[in-house]
Design brief:
Chain lengths: 302, 294
């Protein structure tokens, strides 16, 4: 019978940390190389190609990026994305802070209130879109009914190019608020009790003790939420695709919607890849700037 | 990206604990004046979709809207169920979620253990490489992903949903951080007793890691169950669509039949909502611990 002696080379190699390390990581590495690293590199190469996703691609150098600079549709999608992001991020994060502050106390029914705030978190983006499409329906919608009751004029909402993007903001704040509240509630539980009480006692110093004492404790959570919400806002797609598909009159065409249309409707794969890399770069820069500013605030003042 | 600093898994977010408040002069807390309208606004969209789903077509298509239907049209639900293959949608979503949860638990934990405990050739470089992929948004890789999955012959196939999502870098990081926090003495003692690395991994490390494994499972389940963009790109046949894509196909087919559309929407949200209501504490803690929604 052939069995390696306990001190044979093969046996030692098989028992080594090198072998074990690679054996443990191999399945993950194979999957991540194929579906993570390879597409990143491929996408970069593709952005220098004319690629219709079927016939062999041709090298076009910087032509895709140059075309992007002069594409008014792309410029509009960038404007829409920026407008959406600068509305969504402050509204959702500061709104969540207020709600978390209200929910972090002994109150009759606080468990119900928390549940009401958390439930939209598990509602899918597609369902959110369909439900808001119905709520905001210009003809039969419930919101127009309320406006009517208040004696206010009927609105077009998602069918009005001047209002659609704001409706998307409202819809996504509804869907995301609970997530932000959970993070803030967790952070609030880390604030020492005495400090919380100081900010709760009625009187002139209430606001300033909240701002100067409690808020610094919440800065890591705030920084995380601002960075994370910005990244998600720049990648917005689902809610728009379900409700407006980028319309009316292109008023809700954000960058990822434009990317999808270019790559999978017009089959301009190279152009789509160039849009994707510009988006990647923008996200990277914005995140680094936010972390730099936020990090200084957290660690610089102590 | 993780937010582990806000909460550790040893000191989970306590939903019951609320700070004591100083005595008040009001008969009731003024916070109710803020929280009641807030709760109404958060619940209204869901309640209204439920009401519409039980109305007749005539009731749903009226202005002013019928706030309380005369009789409850439960028949809208079977009608919606049969108008598109909802059974397939649920089955596909279940397969997609179950397979990706299982895949991530197995592959991520194996790799995470190696990165936490073993020093092997190229481990640092490999780890940095993974870190880079974590920063790249999904949209950047979506076009080549489509081509790769097409090359594998998995377009319009549930396999095309599952295979690329079997092992996420996020899971490796999450579990590695946790494994690093475990006391190494237990494993060393087992090693001296002659246990193999696999035995140590399965018999000692994994049983100690159940909370973080549950967290990864919940996050991955939510992500797969609610995924829309990737199925939209690779699936075209209704029979192969998971739930969210199926729901949007259903929307396309019944644009103005709001009562049916709402029945389908409510139906599609019930499983996730039920799981959430049963395991609310776990969901909330998982989100707080990882800081991840999608």
């Amino acid at each position: 019978m052939l069995r390696p002696a306990p001190d044979s080379r093969l046996h030692r190699a098989l028992g080594s940390e090198h072998f074990a390390g690679w054996a443990f990581t191999l399945p993950a590495v194979v999957l991540i190389v194929i579906f993570g690293i390879m597409p990143i590199v491929w996408s970069a190469i593709m952005s220098f190609q004319a690629n219709d996703l079927t016939s062999p691609p041709t090298w076009v150098g910087l032509a895709n990026y140059r075309a992007l600079l002069h594409d008014p549709m792309f410029a509009a999608s960038v404007r829409h994305t920026i407008l959406y992001t600068v509305l969504f991020v402050p509204i959702s994060v500061s709104g969540a802070l207020l709600v978390a502050w209200a929910l972090n106390r002994k109150l009759r029914g606080v468990r119900f209130y928390r549940l009401a705030v958390f439930v939209p978190v598990v509602t899918s983006t597609v369902a959110t879109g369909i439900i808001f499409l119905w709520l905001l329906d210009p003809v039969f919608g419930l919101v127009n009914f309320f406006l009517d009751k208040l004696g206010l004029p009927q609105q077009g909402f998602l069918q009005n190019p001047d209002q659609a993007l704001f409706c998307i903001v409202a819809m996504t704040v509804w869907g995301w608020l609970g997530f932000d509240v959970i993070i803030y509630l967790a952070a609030l539980q880390g604030v020492p009790q005495e400090l919380m009480e100081a900010a709760e006692i009625d009187g002139a110093g209430k606001w300033s003790s909240f701002r100067n004492v409690v808020l610094p404790f919440l800065r890591p959570a705030t920084l995380f939420l601002v960075v994370w919400s910005t990244i998600s806002a720049l990648q917005l797609f689902d809610e728009i695709w379900v409700t407006t598909r980028g319309g009316p009159l292109g008023s809700t065409t954000v960058v990822v919607v434009y990317l999808y249309q270019q790559a999978f409707t017009n089959f301009a794969g190279g152009y789509g890849a160039a849009i994707a890399y510009v988006l990647f770069l923008a996200i990277l820069v914005v995140t680094i700037v936010q972390l730099k500013i936020g990090g200084r605030r957290i660690y610089g003042e102590s | 990206m993780e937010a582990g600093s806000f909460l550790s898994i040893d000191h989970p977010l306590d939903l019951e604990s609320v700070p004591d408040k100083p005595p008040r002069h009001w008969p009731f807390s003024p916070w109710h004046l803020f929280l009641i309208p807030l709760a109404a606004m958060m619940l209204l969209p869901l309640v209204w979709s439920l009401i519409t789903s039980l109305e007749t077509p005539a009731e749903a298509q009226r202005f002013p809207p019928v706030l309380i239907p005369k009789s409850l049209q439960f028949s809208n639900y079977p009608a919606a169920w049969h108008s598109l293959p909802f059974g397939h949608f649920f089955l596909n979503s279940f397969l997609y979620s179950a397979a990706t949860v299982a895949g991530n638990l197995i592959f991520c934990s194996l790799a995470a253990y190696a990165f936490a405990r073993l020093r092997f050739f190229g481990s640092n470089l490999l780890f940095v490489l993974l870190l880079v992929t974590l920063m790249v948004p999904f949209q950047v890789i979506i076009i080549p992903m489509f081509l790769i999955v097409r090359k594998l012959g998995l377009i319009d196939n549930v396999g095309g949903l599952i295979v690329p999502n079997l092992c996420g870098v996020f899971g490796i990081f999450l579990l590695r951080q946790f494994f690093l926090s475990l006391p190494v003495q237990l494993e060393e003692a087992a090693r001296i007793d002659g246990a193999s690395r696999l035995t140590i991994f399965f018999k000692i490390v994994l049983p100690l890691s159940l909370p973080v494994l549950a967290t990864l499972a919940i996050i991955q389940f939510m992500w797969s169950w609610n995924d829309f963009l990737w199925p939209l790109i690779i699936i075209s046949t209704p029979e192969h669509a998971p739930l969210q894509l199926g729901l949007s196909m259903f929307q396309g087919a019944h644009m103005t039949q709001w009562n049916l559309l709402m029945a389908g929407t409510v139906m599609s949200q019930i499983p996730m909502l039920a799981v959430f209501l049963i395991a609310q504490r776990w969901f909330v803690q998982s989100i707080a611990y990882t800081g991840i929604k999608q």
